[in-house]
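Figure 2 data, in text form.
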Amino acid sequence: MKIEKLTENKIRVIIHSHELGFNNINVHSIMTKVIETQDIFSDILKKAEKEVDFHTDGCKLLIEAFSSLEDIFVFTITKYLPDNDLKKKKLIVKRKSFEKINTHVICQFENFESFCEFCNAMKHIHKLDNSELAKKTSLYLWKNSYYLILRNVNTKYKNMNQFYSTLSEFGKLLSFSNHFEYKLLEHGKVVIRKNAIDVGIDFFAN
């Protein structure tokens, strides 16, 4: 089990199915079993508190899950501010689903810090080769938001689900249109012209 602290309120847990006591199970069925046996998450949260100082007492929790490989599962756990009427933790479990993407993609980040957090998460994910993702990646600033443009995306990239899951944790995927891209090119400010993800990892990731 590997636990990564993404922010003060969010962690990522990478775990093999055998560590959960499950064999030959996919991400859809594992969530049903997890709901039935929430002691699994109690153990994870105790370990997270000890290893990365992630305290959840009195907090509501959102748990998202996906699997990039048959025997590896990734849980993202986000805690919310305590509710005065909350007597005990409430677990809200949600599966992430992915739509088929086209070869051009735009992702919006609320601020530059979110983009940096995305790059930091990408840095610590093994077996991700950014050079295979897209031929061109650029970052633009427009109206106080940052936009990552990916052109000529390799839709057959083997770790695509893991990449888009990480991207969606920190940013918002937008429907691509040439008109919107032209608007960014004309009115936006270029922050990183080429290899935006690699540059972000090299200069802004921890």
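Caption note: The longest strand covers residues 60-69.
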